[in-house]
Amino acid sequence: xPRPAILPLEHAVIAAPFGCLGLSAEPEVITAIRFLxxxxxxxxxxxxxLCAQLADELAHYWQHPDHVFSLPLRADGxxxxxxxxxxxxxxxxxxxxxxxxxxxxxxxAARAVGGACGRNPLPIVIxxxxxxxxxxxxxxxxxxxxxxxxxxxxxLQHEGSxxxxxx
Length: 167
Hints:
By secondary structure, the protein is α+β, with helices and mostly antiparallel strands. The protein is 34% helix and 16% strand.
């Protein structure tokens, strides 16, 4: 049975090397990370909060791309989406996997894997940016637009896994 909709109790907007990130949390779990425009108004997280801890971990990731996130998370999604997100978490920093490879691993189709990647509520922490198309970068965050693809490129370059044939 789906969880009733509960508005997150905590929000923050932090600067990232490629723009801004919106962070959301409930009392005991991080629930969302959203890509925001670079000119989004910053909103500092409350000291000691989960959003503040996530901001600290992200700052560490900006310096050390092999950082492993350790905060409590809740990524709401279907059973299939959960399986895809779990598979994405198994892709180490500095490596990529193709949508088709994940699809074969999960007994599914590449398009379904792409759909699950696009619905990932916790990008960066659940590293959907590490999933690419066979011959190009693929999409990112339910888009093939240059704004989102530039973020994907930045993340892959940061981790040292920029696919040389990506466009």
